[in-house]
Each structure stands twice: as structure tokens, then as C-alpha cells.
Amino acid sequence: TTRLSHLQKTFGKWLICLFxxxxxxxxxxxxxxxxxxxxxxxxxxxxxxxTSDEPAYAFLTFVGINxxxxxxxxxxxxxxxxxxxxxxxxxxxxxxxxxxxxxxLGFRPLFGKIVSLIMSYSSGLFIGPEGPMIHIGSAIGAAxxxxxxxxxxxxxxxxxxxxxxxDKRDFISVGAASGISAAFGAPIGGVLFSIEEASSFWSRQxxxxxxxxxxxxTFTTNFLLQGVxxxxxxxxxxxxxxxxxxxxxxxxxxxxxxxxxxxxxGLLGAAFVFFNIHLNKWRRDFIKSNSLIKLIEVMVxxxxxxIVCFYSSSLFNCxxxxxxxxxxxxxxxxxxxxxxxxxxxPGMYSEMASLLFTNPDQALRRLYxxxxxxxxLPALVVFTLFYFALSIMSSGLWVAGxxxxxxxxxxxxxxxxxxxxxxxxxxxxxxxxxxxVGSAAxxxxxxxxxxxxxxxxxxxxxxxxxxxxxILAVMIAKWVGDFFNESVYEHLMELKHIPFLQSLPPxxxxxxxxxxxxxxxxxTVPELCTVRALLSTLEGNYHHAYPVTCSLESDNNEYxxxxxxxxxxxxxxxxxxxxxxxxxxxxxxxxxGTSSELLLDTNFGHDRFIQETSKKPPKLNELDLDESxxxxxxxxxxxxxxxxxxxxxxxxxxxxxxxxRTMGLRHLTVIDVSNxxxxxxxxxxxx
Amino acid sequence: TTRLSHLQKTFGKWLICLFxxxxxxxxxxxxxxxxxxxxxxxxxxxxxxxTSDEPAYAFLTFVGINxxxxxxxxxxxxxxxxxxxxxxxxxxxxxxxxxxxxxxLGFRPLFGKIVSLIMSYSSGLFIGPEGPMIHIGSAIGAAxxxxxxxxxxxxxxxxxxxxxxxDKRDFISVGAASGISAAFGAPIGGVLFSIEEASSFWSRQxxxxxxxxxxxxTFTTNFLLQGVxxxxxxxxxxxxxxxxxxxxxxxxxxxxxxxxxxxxxGLLGAAFVFFNIHLNKWRRDFIKSNSLIKLIEVMVxxxxxxIVCFYSSSLFNCxxxxxxxxxxxxxxxxxxxxxxxxxxxPGMYSEMASLLFTNPDQALRRLYxxxxxxxxLPALVVFTLFYFALSIMSSGLWVAGxxxxxxxxxxxxxxxxxxxxxxxxxxxxxxxxxxxVGSAAxxxxxxxxxxxxxxxxxxxxxxxxxxxxxILAVMIAKWVGDFFNESVYEHLMELKHIPFLQSLPPxxxxxxxxxxxxxxxxxTVPELCTVRALLSTLEGNYHHAYPVTCSLESDNNEYxxxxxxxxxxxxxxxxxxxxxxxxxxxxxxxxxGTSSELLLDTNFGHDRFIQETSKKPPKLNELDLDESxxxxxxxxxxxxxxxxxxxxxxxxxxxxxxxxRTMGLRHLTVIDVSNxxxxxxxxxxxx
Lengths: 687, 687
Prior knowledge:
Two copies of one chain form a homodimer.
Chain A: H1 2-51, H2 55-80, H3 89-97, H4 107-122, H5 130-145, H6 157-160, H7 165-184, H8 187-198, H9 204-226, H10 254-287, H11 291-315, E1 318-320, E2 348-350, H12 353-356, H13 360-367, H14 377-394, H15 404-425, H16 431-447, H17 451-461, H18 467-484, H19 488-495, H20 514-517, E3 525-526, E4 528-530, H21 531-540, E5 545-549, E6 572-577, H22 578-586, H23 606-613, E7 633-635, E8 646-648, H24 653-663, E9 667-671, E10 677-682, H25 683-686
Parallel strand pairs in A: 3-5, 8-9
Antiparallel strand pairs in A: 1-2, 4-7, 5-6, 9-10
Helix pairs in contact in A: 1-2, 1-4, 1-5, 1-7, 1-9, 2-4, 2-11, 3-19, 4-5, 5-7, 7-8, 7-9, 8-9, 8-17, 10-15, 10-16, 10-18, 10-19, 11-14, 13-15, 14-15, 15-16, 16-18, 17-18
């Protein structure tokens, strides 16, 4: 039966992963579809006015629709709360590191984030949908695996066994991975992102299930996007396709240029982190939580963005469609045909409008296009600068939105610029590779991911031919960026006071002893304890766990049989959670203080206890205990964790850090040579 | 200075990874070059006799050269020892799991393996070079990072800091990853292989360095293979290229066929494991270590293989080169031109010889070819069966050789067969995709890798268009295979008695207490101990570590100030390694037993101690101690590990297992409620 229940539990996990994948894929589909419709409506309206030669109306319609979309996005965040804004990656990273961010993964933030994201991305703000998809995926992971409702008192039994911290964290990490997979159409990249960036703990089984879930999510999105009836062929293309070429269009000497792109990406990435974090600090300190000012800020940014997009598109000259030179060695390139006409006469196109008066996917596809001369150098410079500046302002606004797409755009912009510049002096330069490598470098520069980023780029462009340039640029960009500051997520977590534990202990504390950092104000409880003593312990502090000490007579008579709340030093026996004590008191699992009743049945109330712990923990002032109960005895032994880790007070700080981080602990008791509790370590003591 | 020395240490690690990458890349290059030359010579000789119409001479030459190559391969193994044979993956996996396989990573096995691999792969045995490259990479990782020579007394100081277990293991894991990267031309796949299959411990920093090393290794190999002078273009193609197509040549309904391929791959993989493991068990029990029989066995297999290759190539009819139909939608396919002529008249080719009378890379390329009708169904069936049967016999022979290539070959064989079979009934079937998916399924079926395998296939074929079919087939093949048995590596480790700890504890023991499995025969030593007592402890057993107990007077006078080898129970203080005690005794780091000299200088001899521990540990009978030394006192406190983990005797087995496995421990001391040592857990207690 152990084996059977184990099989059942494993099968349940796979099933939950399947559901997570399907839901995440479905939401990615809804997102793409809604954004397409909303943006399509907008551009159709505006182009209508342009065609009928009414530029003023066109402009006003453009700004108006954008502002309206944005207004809805920010209203959603104001209604639902701040957790629906931004990308949510710092919160997810923190959660998976072991920090409990209250209610960051509930239904309300999930719903709010989806709606806000659809509206803000449609509005043309310089943000991307991928970051929030990670948060959405995590929230779906939490929702599916912890499915229950206290309102209708529905607690499905098969999910009860996954109510523990470890399983919940695993499902949330699966959800995060599938979110990024569905967004990019990159199942392997999603798994790697979760391994490299999001998760702090790793196991082979988990990776394997994550992989499955990512594939389901990607497949669901693609399946729905194509519409089953219309075409029997599968185009599992992700966001971007990159025309295949018969030749490898770069030479060894060009690796130097790619190194240069890496350096630029690192510098720009670090600059982005610097400016964006300072802006967000300023926002935190001056705007605080004044909703009206936040709303006004968003509206100002969207109006500026709209004006920039519209006017910079008008300022550049029109170019002849027929001037575009298609590289003869390129096997397939569907991107060059569709440039944006904007105010240009038929047969011509506006290069700036093709980048800004369009949706970001299309713009990126054009930047990665294999045709070499669709953009001029000045247009690329202006585009890159505008995009960079406005991305800094847009990130951290009071709407849902991520950074991947804007950073890819900036990277593709300067990459293509440098490619075309080099192409002026040397023959046979393919600027599209430079755009691709520039994107990778820029992303590595701001978020310092490495291997997952490379895989995502490969999956996006469906080819591994440019692996070496991409890897080179990503590595250099990371090194250069690391020289100046940390990744944007690390800084955001600092800003949001999320106590994140890096995988290595900080150097400054490396030589410390654990006794220098541990918390000596540890409160212990005896194994056998009166209700009165427990209540006064719970009232006196808000610790989440208490080391349990021996309370039975030992050989040398040192410890009394203490039923009271004796505070005499006694040896360590285990660890008990505050919430578990509360549940014991709520369920009245206690005895009269006579030795005959005591110790008789250690399973007394155990089933009820397990069931109750999966629900919301009771509050201290909601306990229904009268004076006569106060003298009863609670036997903590069956309910404490006797496999809780302890360390001796001879430990070094860095060894304790590694143990804490690797095992994903929340509390670590420190004992001395007599096995007496001398301190406790929590996450905050280690920072 | 802490920060500076940390930077220096980190920089040193990167430098070592660079060297590992360059060396591994260089060796992969040497391997490829030598094999090309040796095989080229062989096929040229034989084809010469064929052209001059002397089939008997051709046959004899073929068998003769193959046997000669094989003889050299097996002689190398006999000279160098068994560690040069097979793939070495079980040993590497075991090592990275925490098992010390004596001298498996020295210079001798490294050299022997390289030479044996070159000769055995050239001989046409049905083995592959990728598996041994993992072992070679690991050995290079060990050699570069631990570079020193006791012969010329050369101990470079910068490497001294990496002499600890953890760093050494990390470098070996880096080496293993770069080995597979260089072999497949797949840097990302190599990193993932190391994360998924080889390494038991994972950190972000390590992944990042592994990635760097893999890129260097791949790049070095490609750079050398192309020859810098000849061409300025980069072809970073790995082993195989797969013609790009303008269309996605599969439909949703074909996913069913790919599931079928997954099932077949899983079944054949499980069958391979079953037969191969039984054969290897038989080899272990009956051939044992009789070198002559082993040599004869290898010679028998190579003669059979040669006969099969030669005669099955002759048996099939010749086909007209002009009959080959090139798929019009395929953009690029360089493979169809070069089929093998063998005995056929000009303008015709032998399909069997194109698979068997050629090197395996070429054969695989032909099986993956986009041209649909180069092979007939009977040829594919015969080829697959022969290859499957002879691979089972070849794996585990007394020569170096791996399984990746043979399994890819078998998978491509049945995959292409099924693709062509389906193509008889439905239009528009591209058999090459089936071959690719079949290869992936077969590999997943025998080694049960998932994500790294998918990435390797993608990197090999340079396109992500077939991600969904590959992932589907790999997952199904793994599930089907897992239903029957474990992966071939798990069984081989069992066969070789390598105590490998899986990432999850065995179900059968899940409910046990730690007191049921721990070793109670634990030998402790006091902090202050006479040389005599230490010597008798070391002589009495061969434990690798001893818990150290308190020997100073405590408050309640319980523990005497014991200079002797007192065995009285005393509280736990730390853990000391056997080798460290030996070094202390060798360096004569001990005191007269007077309290005035004692405790004066805790750093006495510390530098010498650190330097000495990096060398080979001294032997007990080599210690130069006379009778008067025996009464001296060794103070173990500065040399013991006071941050060694302990658990209480209340722990459950499964929690202890997780701790042991996750933290990569070798010893775990069990203490009771008084902090007295009651047992110790080693790897073998947990199995």
C-alpha cells in the first residue's frame, strides 16, 4: 500500500502538471488573441483616417485609444491591488527562494494581472507580456494544485496531500516555467529559466515534470492559435522566425564585432538597471500609494509614448518598397513584404512606422529580417534611443508589463545599426545576425540570465547556427553588466524588501561564526505543556516556530516533569510550528494532567489535526477556551517535527548558510555541547 | 583582502575551466582526425581491391585491418587496466554522486581510453565515441584542476586552494559536460547532460562556468577541424546536418505515429538494457578478469561484425543513383550525392554499403536525409536488426566505446522504416523526420535522459521545427522503458557495485527511523588524545572519519580531562578525517602532555598541514614514530571539522536521506538527547 499510495501521489502530480499546462496555454492564447483584436482595431481606425487624409483625426484617435486602453489597465490594478502591476518576477523569485509574500498568488491578482496586461500591452506602452506570464503561470500553478474554497467549504481530498510547502513550491515553479514557455513558444527555454533564474531548489523529477508541463502549455497555445479546422499543418513557430540561409553568413573576424555587441549590451543593460531602479526608488518614496498620482503618471507616459510613435513615424522620408534588396542566399523570409505604409504613397513605406506604428512582434520580425537595407542608419539610431528611454520610464508603472520585449527591441535596434555600419566597410555582412545577437546581449545585460536566454533565442529563431555568437555576446554582456551592478530583479527585490538568499553567502560575512549572527532571543516550549503556558507563549511573540525541549525526567534528575511553562534550560527535542499549536488548541487536543491519561494514545486526534492544518490557520483570539481548559496538558510530541535540522554552535556562518539555502529551510535551531537550545536562525539573520 | 582572495579564487576557477575546455576540444579534434585517417585508409584499401575486382582480397583486407585495429584497442585496455574500457559513464556518475572510485580519473586511464577509443571506433565495432568522451572530459577536469606531480615534487600553489572535495567534483562535472559538448558539437546539450544525468549537486555559478567550458570545447574542436587558413567561414555544424525545409512536413495526425515511435523506442531500449545487462553479468561471472578470453571475445565480435558488414552489403541489389528523388521543398541537403558504390557499377550505389561500409557519421547523415527513396524497406529492416543485435554484444567489451551512436543508428533505422511504411499509404510523409524522432526515442529508451537528449538532438540537427515530435517520443519512450527496467547506467552501476544514491529514498524504507539503519559501531576520538590512542584507533578499523568528542572538564565533572584513549561516553564536538590524523602524525604536530604547552598556539603547524593534505595521504606503517612519541598529545580541535552536520536519533530515514543526498555528505553523525554520539551514517547504510 505504501507503493500504491506513492504511485497515486506521483500520478496526481503529473495530472496537476497537465492541468497547469493546459490552463497556462489557454491564457496565453486568450492574451494573444485579445491583444491582436484590440491592436488591430486601433491600427485599422487610425489607418482609416490616414487614408482619408485627416492626420489630425488620426493622431487624436491614436492617442485617445491608447490612453483609453491604458486607463483600463491602471484601473484594474487600482481595484485589484499592487500585486497585479509590473512583471511580478521578483515576487515569484522570492517565493521560490522560500519567502512567503502574502497572497501574491491568489485568484484576484491573477485575474487582475491578465486583464491589466491585455490592456496595457494593447495600448502600445513599451512593455512586454512575457514577464507577467511568469507570474500568471505561477498563480495558476498555485491555484490548480491548491484548489479548494473556504467559501463553499470545498476541500477536494486528492489535493490534500499536496498542501505542504514543498509540493506547493514545486507546482508554482512548474507554473512559472510553463508561463514563459507559452509566452515565447520555447518549452526548453522555459524549463531552463525555471532552473536558472526562478527556482532555488532543484530535483530531477521536478525538472522532468516541468518539461512536460512546458510542452503542454506551448502546444496548447500553438494548437489554439492555428485553429484546428483551418489547417492540418503544424507551424510550431514561436514569436519569431528567422529566415534560413544556405550560407553561414559570418566569419571568424566577425566574432570581434559580436564581442563588441556584448559589451554594448552589458553597458546599456547596466545603465537600464541604474536608471530604472532609481526611478522606481523615487516612485516608492514620493508617489507612495497615492492612486491618483499613479494614474496620472501612467497617462502621461502613454501620451508621450503615443506622440513619439506617431511623430517620429511621420518625420522620416518614405522609401520605395522596390528598393529592398533580398539576399539571394536566403532560403525563406516572409517578413520583407509587409512594411507599414502609414502616410506614404502606395508602393512606398515608412521605416519608422514599420517599427513603432505596429505591434512589437511585427517590429521585431522586421528588425531580424534577412533583407539588408530595409532600414536606414538614422532611423535605427532614433528608434533605439527612444525605445531605451521610454522603456526605462514604462517599467515599474502601475500596470502589468514585463521587460523582455522592450529589451529585445533595443538590442535588435543597436545590433542592426552596428551590423549595417560594419556592412558599409566590409562586404557580406548580414545585419540580421547582429540584430539577433544584439537582442541577446541586451537581455543578458539587464537580467543576467545566461543559458536559458541562449536557449530561448535559439527556440525563437528556430536555428542553432548562431549559437557561438549568441553565447559569446551573452557571456560578455553578463560580465560587463556584473561589473556595474546586479540584475534588475535583485535590485527590485531589494527595493521591495524581499529577503532573497543568493546561492552563495555574502563575502563580507564569510569568516563569521554562527554565534555572531544567530538570534539568541529564541523562545522554546516543553514537550508537555499546559494550555496556559502555550497561550502566554503565543501571545508574547510572533515567531513562526518554536524549538521543543525535553520535559521528562532524565537520568540525572536535571529536568523536572514540567507541565507548566517552565523556562529552565532543557535539551532540544524537535521543532513545532505556531500554526500547529493553534490548531491543537482549536481542536482541543489536550489531556487532564494525570499520568494515567497521558501517553495513552499518541494518535488521539491525529486525523482531525492533519485535515485542519490544510485549512486557514485559526487566530489566537478566535480560540474558544475557558478558564478550566487552561490547566490541561498539551502533548506536543506527536505533532512536533522531530526530523528538524539543528546545528551546533561551533558552525561557521558560511556552512550554516549553505545548509539553510540548499535545504530550503525557514528555521534552523542552534544547540550547544549539552544539546541545549542557544539560538535560532531565520532567513533574516543570514542576510 | 577577503574580497581580493575571493576574486582571485573565482578567476582561477574560470581559468581552469578555460584550460579544461581547450584540452577537451583538442582531444576531440585529435580523436576525429585520427579516426578519419584510420578509417579512410581502411576503406581506400578495400575499395582498391573492389575496383580491381578482387573480392576475396577486399574481404580479407577488411577483416584484417578491422581485427588489427581492434587488437590494439584491447591491448591498450589490458596494459592500462579495466578503467580504460567501456564508456566510463557509470564511474563518472558515481564519482559525481559522491562515491570515490579509486584512481578512475588518473592519467593512465585517460591516455589508455583515448588510444583504445581511437582504435576501436576505427575498427568498425558498433560503438560510439561520445560516452568515452564524457569520461575523458572528466579525467581532464581532474587532471587540470589537480595538476601536480609527486614524482617531480611539483605542487603549484594556485591549485592548492582547489584541492578540496567540493571544488574537485565541480571541475570533474565541468569536464564531463565539455566532453559531451565537444563530441556532439552541442554546448547547451552538454550542460544539460551534466545537470540532468551526471551531477547530483547543482549551483548557478557552476552551471554558468560549465556553459563557458562547453562553449570553449565545442569552439576549439570546430576551429581545429576547419583549419584556420583554408576558409574564413564558420561552419559550426555538429555531427549532423538536417536539410531545412520550406514546409513543416508533418501534420497533427502524424503525432500519433510519433507516439508509436516513442513506444517502439521504449520497448527496444528496455530490451537492449535487459539483454546487455544479462550479457555483462555473464561476462563478469564467467570471463572474470582473464585477459586472454577477453581478447578472444573482442576478436570474435569484430570478425562477426566485419563479416556482417561486408556480406550484407554485397547481398542487396545495386540501385541507380538517378532514381533518388529529391524533395522539391527542401532548401538544402548535401547528403544525397555521396552514396557508397561498393561492388556496384558506376552510376549505381549499394544501399547497405551506404549504411555499413562507411563510418557511422556518414551512415547517420544518410538515414536523416531528406530525400525519400534512397533506401528500400527490406534494407532498413535488415540493417536495424543487425545493428541492434551487434550493439548488444559490443557494449561492455574490453575496449573503450559508448552507446550513443549505435542507439541513434538503430532508432534512425526503425524510424525511417516506419516513416517509409506510412508513406506507402499516405501522401506527403517525410521519412527523415521519422528517422530523427526514432533516434531520439531509442536513446531515451535505453538511457532515460529527457531534456538534455532533446536539446542534443536539436543542436545536432540545427533546427527546432521538430521539437514537439521529439519531446513527445522521448517522453513516451522513457515512460515505456521505466515500466520494464531502469536505465542502462543504473544497472551498470549496480553491476559494478557503485553505491549510487538516487535523488529520492527507496520506497521500501520510507517509513523507517534512522536508528534502524544507522551504524552503531561508531568509533570516536577525544579532542585531546595521545598518539598511542590514535594509533590504536587507526589500526583497529578503516573508517574514513571519526566523530570527535569533548575531553575537557565540563561543569558537572562528567568528562575527565582524558589524554588517553578513554572510551567513556562524552558529548560530540566535530568530525575528523582519517587522512588528516595521519598527516598530523606524519608532520609530528603534537605536544608534550603538559597544560602549559597545550592550548598555547592553535596555529602550530597549520600551514604545513594544509600543504601536506593536498598530497597523497601517508600510510599508517610509513609513519616514523618512536616509543617516546606515543605519550605525546594531539590536539585535534584546530583540525577537526566543527561545521560537520549531525542529526538527532529522532530523525526519520527519509529526511536523513534527503539531507545526505542534497548536501553531498560522506558521513553523518547521529547524536542523542545528551549530544552523545550514538551512531554514524555512511552512503552504504542508506542504500
